[in-house]
Every structure is written in C-alpha cells, then in structure tokens.
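re the bet — no i am not wrong, look at it urself. input seq straight from the record:
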Amino acid sequence: MGHRHSKSDSSGSSDGSDSSRFPRFRRRIRLHRRRKSSNSTGQRTTIVVKDFVGIARIQLIEAEMKFRDRWFACISLGERTYRTVKSDYTHKPVWKSEKKVLLEKNGAHIARISVFETNRLSKSNLVGCCEIDLLDVLSRDSSDSSDKVLDLLDPSSANAVVGSISLSCSLEDPVETEKSFVRRILAIVDYNADGMLSFSEFSGLIDAFGNQVAAGKKEELFKAADKNGDGVVSMDELAELLAVQQQEESLISSCPVCGETLSNIDRLNDIIHLTLCFDEGTGNQIMTGGFLTDKQASYGWIWKLSEWAHVSSYDIGLKSGSKASHILVFDRRTKRLVEELIDGKIILSMRAIYQSKVGLTLINAGAKELLQSISEKQGRQMNSPESVKDIPTFIDFFKDQINVADAKYPVEYFKTFNEFFIRELKPGARPIAHEEYDSVAVCAADCRLMAFKSIDDSIRFWVKGRKFSVEGLLGTSIAAGNFSSGSMVIFRLAPQVNPIAVNSKYCNVFTENKRVVSIISTSDFGKVAFVAIGATMVGSITFNKKQGDYVRKGEEFGYFSFGGSTVICVFEKDAIDIDEDLVANSGRSLETLVSVGMSLGVSRRSKAEAKLPNMDKCRVCD
C-alpha cells in the first residue's frame, strides 16, 4: 500500500558469537514492534519461519483479593482461553498453573487475565481483570524468566483496583522446544524408560507417525538413525533423524495426538504444533483449554447440561450467530475473541420476531407499527430527567464494552440518559489512521464490523434476509450505477440489530427498518453510499451535515440516540481494497470489533496512480 513506510527485513547479523539465544529472540520481538508501529493498516502478511517469535510460558502463581471465596483464573489469547483449577476458600488463592502459547509477529500478543469467584450452578462472577502485552514484557526483560505483579481492575471501572495477581512469563528456546518434543515422543514407546529405542520400540513410533512410506522402510530408517551402531536409538540420534528427514521427506504425516495433517513444509512450525499438542494430550500443563472466551470458561454445570442437550451452543460462524445463545466477535485491537453482552429478554424477543414464521406474521399484521410506537416512546423517555437513574445500570451491564474514562465529561455531568448515550469523547481518544491521507478509508464507528468485497459475498456469508438487494437498500435510482456490483461494509453499533435479526431468512432489517441514505463524493473512492439504519428501539437519527457540506476524515457526521443501530457503506466497484483481516473474519461469518478511526482499506485508484493527496476532504452530495 502506497502510504506505508518501507522497512528492511534485517534485524542485524548474527555470527553465532552470542552464547545465549534469548537476546536474539528479544531483538526479533523489538523489530516486530517497530514494524507494527509503521504498519497499522491491518493487512496480513504471509507467516514464514522468520516471523516466529517463540513459545511463551505463562504461569499464574497466586492472587490477592479483597474477600474470601473459591477462585479461578483464565488466560485469553487470540481465539483460545485457558483456565486454572478452583482454589480453596480464601482471599489469597494459589494456583501455580501454567500454559505455553505460540507467539507470532503478526499474531495475538495481548493476553487478558480474568479472575472469577465461583458459582457452580449458572456462571461465575467476573471480579477483576487485566491485560499484559507478552511481546512487550519479553522484549524488555533481561532475565530468562520474569515475575510480575499486576493490578486487577474492576471490569466496570478502569480506575478501581479489586486485587492483584502474580505471574511469571518466559520465552522458551526453540531448540529446547524440539528437544522437549523428542523426549515426549520417546516416552510414547520407550516401554522400559531407559531413554533409548530398540528396533521394536522404534517400529511402534514410526507407525504412530501415520506415514505409510516410512512404515515400509523401518529397518533402513533405524540403521540411518543408529549412528554409533549400538543397536538402539538415543534422543540425540532420533532428533537428528527427524531433522534430516524433514528436509527430504518428513516421517510425521499427522499429529499422533489430535490427528491433524501436518504441512511437512516448515519443520519449525510442525515441531511447535506437536509440542503444544503433546502438552495438551499428556496433561503436563495444569490449565484447562478448549474454551473460546473467559465467559465460556466461567459457565457452570447448568450451561454445560444445556449445551450437551443441544439447547444452547457456543461457537462462531453464521449458524451460531443467528441461533446461539451467545454472540462472539473478534476484537481487532487485542486480536482476541470476546462475547457480546445482550440482555436475555432482548435475545428472546428478537428470536421470537426474527427467527420464526410466527414472528414474520406478527410483523406483517401490524406488530411493526407497534414496535415503532414503542421505539418513539422509549426515545422520549430517555430524554427525560428521570432517565438519568438508568446510566449506572447501563454502565454496569456493559462494563466490558464501555470505558467511561474516554468520555469528555464525567458521568455526573449528564442530565438525561440520552445525553450520556451520545457523549463526546476526549480529544485523541480515537486516533485516525493515516489522517494525512484521504486515500486510506477508516472505520466509521465504534462497532462490530463485517466487510465484503462484493454484495454477493455479503449474501453468501452474512445477510440472509428474503429478497435482500442493494436496490432495496439504496433505492433503484441510486443503485443503478456501480453500487450494485460494489463492496459493502456493515458497521453494527447496537446489540439490538444483531445477527439474530441480520441472519433472519424471514425479513430484511436493512431494507425494512427506517433508514437515511447519503451519497458522499470523494476524490479517491468515487461516490460512497452512507446508509444510517434505525433499530427496533432507536429514538432518532441525527446528522451534523447537510447537503453540499464538506466533511473531513475523522469528523463527526452524525449520531444515533438511544438504541443505536447500523451504518452500511457501499463503495462503487473496484473503488477500495478492504483490509485483509476484516475480509478474512467476515468470510468466517465473524464480526470484528473496531473503533472509530481504525483502518478500513485503501483506494485502488490512488494505488494505481501512486497518488497520495494531503487534504482529507470529501463532499456530501445528497
């Protein structure tokens, strides 16, 4: 992309004179952090061996809380979450639970640590949490292992400390990783535990690797491994055999633990996979995996029973988004899955309306007008002085999603709920990506985002409404041009317009709800259709610009009052290259949690012309 700074791939030569590998790993981490700061477009690059940072070993040692209970803790990184065992009844739980996680240069590196008080029946209560940047910690510390004490913050208030947690974090040497793997596979078939493999034990190991070609030449391989001719294969001899065969024809076709087919291209990545998988399979690490989020890890046996009975499901994807009792989104900042919080009553009502033919019949019979009346009444109520009492409850419920510290004024400043809902943010709270270049489009709202290169992709992966079309969304006259074959980005602001409604095959929330269409004329992206869509409980849609006004990149264009809703931007054909991470997540039917000002994509026209204007202006046509 034209606006990115070029950067050399070299991090300095290494002549092998450094007796420790860890300084080289930390230099590699620091190089990654410099690259990241100069490349905020969200574009993914191909992961190669040089992008491997290492395997981080994280141990949760103990915590100190303000009251007594039985506690457990979770570590969430990327799309995986691990939890400790439950502690005794105490205010100083001790776990000493560890987990090994893979770190890649462009992968997840901000880990969330959550501490829960237990509840056996439904779900446990989140008491405190914190985040730790593993790359930052491992690049700054000079010792091979780093012990930390972190404050645990109240999820509803970033300034309130509810306890502390002690942990250690270290980077595992890849050579030691490989040796650890070899020791584990030796243990599989080393029946007399002497650290050596006889021919019969070696034969059993080759069979476990699932390679039929290798199974046919066991004697040849055994002789090749037995370098000193003593009739047994040692750990070092086995490691050398695996290294040589990896370069020629890998002995290991599939993982003996999970059965996954290996790439047989990159020896290092295969070894990493096998090492981590063996840790899971042999139970060497205390922390339990298999969770997507810490919320899932906190559920009690009632939830597990409902999942077992297929009453509830917990997963990502289109079916899960529309029918599951929980909605998962991918946090772009932390590169971690998070669970969206929605009131249970809203889930039930939305499913009754949008996921059944009965609901469709009610809408056609006049329920839509009733909902509109309720929406207008709710809007008036949220503008009343009495509504201010709802602000603390709202903040508490969405404590993982609202940071009141970002607001320009304190909570006490607001006289109505709607004043709080449309609150201004502090200057700089939402940095604008590449603000000097109007060739770089940015996200229009704090929202859950879906981005598609074509309208057809949006229908295939996400929008399942009956007879949905860009003509129905924009109007026939507007959609007559290149919009009908263009790209579409959906900015979902509110829980009320959630996948339950969007994925409904019985109706179209995008084309049947109240909406306002604006056409913005830009020099780099051509015309862009900006569609503001009202939700079931929206009070009003307000625009700060009128026809003919100019609007700068990052400037406020408008806002929704209570209830929020959805904004859809439709670009003309071949106008934008959307950031690959957004497209990839959308292809999995997974929404991405983004903030205003994050990169959305780059103008194809400017890339072709190598044109990067200095002014970020665009004009509102109608």
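see?? The mean pLDDT is 76. told u. also The radius of gyration is 28 Å. so pay up
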